[in-house]
Design goal:
39% of the residues lie in helices and 11% in strands. It is an alpha+beta fold.
Length: 263
């Protein structure tokens, strides 16, 4: 099996493919001279669950969070938009201070992974599937610490499994072969619908409960009660509905309209 991955120019990515049992040494704390140095001049992609956790931490709506802290980017191959964290004018994370991250318990999953990166190989490749790789910034002193982890232990300590579980359907959407192979450029309406159901859980709640949505789609009462009270369930519901809209699979069926006699 090829145990290397493509090196990205001058990137700090080390071209070594790791699995869940691979070991590495790392620890980050205030005593390091590089503390918070990694929180700037980087691209931090946001997942839907990142946005939900961060907007609740700040006690604002998802729409307000995205307007203030989100920046829309598009994947070149799939042509679908993704949100990145908007950096300050001096290219730093808006939530970092000299004392550290002000939203640390609800930081994005990309921050939780560091100093690891995460990738997915096409299933047709030898050893296809999820893999991990080390990221080593030249200034980072955390790699010199004695604390040793396996990738599995690191993921557990950073609650990454929770993020993966909530984001699963959404990740399936953005990595779908149908989406990647499509030559059709989504129109603006489709992009806005995608962003609404992906990230903006508060606006999606209004879409479900303050429009004719529940008159149009077959949704059982238990699910309605659940998504009305639990926004994590609502977010996952939004992703299942979006998958059905985009691919016609695993979503919610439209109700059959009753035929009326013409007078």
């Amino acid at each position: 099996m090829d145990d290397t991955i493509k090196e990205l120019g001058n990137s700090p990515v080390i071209p070594v493919k790791m699995d869940l049992d691979s070991k590495f040494s790392f620890q980050c704390h205030k005593g390091l001279g590089c503390f918070t140095s990694c929180c700037g001049r980087i691209d931090i992609f946001l997942t839907p669950y990142d946005v939900l956790r961060m907007k609740n931490r700040l006690d604002i709506s998802s729409g307000a969070f995205l307007a203030m802290y989100g920046q829309v980017m598009e994947l070149k191959k799939a042509r679908i938009p993704l949100f990145m964290l908007r950096m300050t004018e001096d290219k730093k994370c808006p939530f970092v201070t000299k004392e550290g991250c002000t939203i640390y318990p609800d930081r994005p999953v990309a921050c939780r992974y560091y100093p690891l990166g995460f990738g997915i190989l096409k299933s047709t490749e030898v050893g296809g599937g999820d893999f991990f790789f080390p990221i080593k910034e030249g200034y980072c002193e955390g790699h010199n610490e004695e604390k040793e982890w396996t990738v599995r232990e690191w993921r557990n300590s950073q609650e990454i499994n929770k993020y993966d579980f909530v984001n699963k359907v959404w990740l399936d959407i953005i990595l779908s072969k149908k989406l990647l192979a499509s030559q059709v450029v989504p129109d603006e309406k489709t992009k806005q619908l995608y962003l609404l159901a992906s990230y903006d859980v508060d606006s999606f709640r209004s879409f479900v409960f303050e429009s004719r949505f529940l008159d149009e789609y077959e949704v059982d009462q238990d699910t309605i009660d659940l998504i009305r009270e639990d926004e994590v369930e609502l977010l996952q519901f939004a992703h299942r509905w979006l998958r059905g809209v985009l691919f016609g699979e695993g979503g919610y069926k439209r109700k059959m309209k009753e035929k009326t006699e013409e007078g």
